[in-house]
Design a protein that fits this description.
The chain is 52% helix and 20% strand. It has two domains: 3-97, Mlu1-box Binding Protein, DNA-binding Domain (Roll); 127-175, no CATH class. It has helices spanning 30-38, 43-56, 85-93, 101-119, 127-138, 143-165, 171-175, and strands at 3-10, 13-20, 25-29, 66-71, 77-84. It is globular, with a radius of gyration of 21 Å. It has 176 residues and is an alpha+beta fold.
């Protein structure tokens, strides 16, 4: 497992994270996120209690947390519980704190939008494309770049559809 370490800063507090190149996922220090969102004076104790509560509720969230060595405040590499983005969102949903509420509202809104895209037959079939354009625009990409990006995605989809019609199935075949 190849990792690169980065520090994210949220409201002036550091959140340790690792990028796993093999799995192509970020892993975040649970204690750091708990510290930021709970205002607890002892984030490790808070996380232990939260883990106990989640286990009692039958949540699988805790089993998805792993230990990784990360640089601690004392400058030593220490094992710490980490979670990928999806699992971290579940943990955030379990933290009863006003600071966690904006994340919870955002997750609820995004979830609602995706359910609408999937379930509502009256929904605009190009809604996902419109959403992608809006995200690129919000990130500051120029209109001509967005247009080229959207065209390249459409062309790639047409190409892979054509390959599938001709029997291409395996990832290796697509690579060739």
């Amino acid at each position: 497992m190849v990792k690169s370490t980065k520090i994210a800063v949220f409201e002036g507090k550091k959140i340790r994270r690792h990028w796993d190149e093999e799995k192509e996922k970020w892993y975040f220090s649970v204690a750091n996120v708990v510290s930021v969102l709970s205002n607890s004076t002892s984030p490790l104790a808070y996380w232990r209690k939260l883990k106990e509560r989640l286990k009692k509720e039958g949540s699988e969230t805790v089993t998805k947390c792993h230990s990784l060595k990360m640089l601690a405040a004392d400058g030593k590499m220490r094992l710490t519980d980490v979670a990928d983005t999806e699992t971290m969102f579940r943990i955030i949903q379990s933290i009863p704190s006003p600071k966690a509420e904006p994340f919870k509202r955002w997750l609820a809104r995004v979830g609602y939008e995706r359910v609408q895209e999937i379930e509502d037959p009256e929904q605009d079939p190009e809604l996902a494309q419109k959403r992608a354009r809006a995200i690129y625009k919000a990130k500051g990409y120029p209109e001509d770049w967005i247009e080229r990006r959207m065209r390249s995605i459409a062309i790639r989809e047409e190409l892979t559809d054509e390959w599938q019609k001709h029997g291409v199935e395996l990832a290796k075949e697509y690579e060739i």
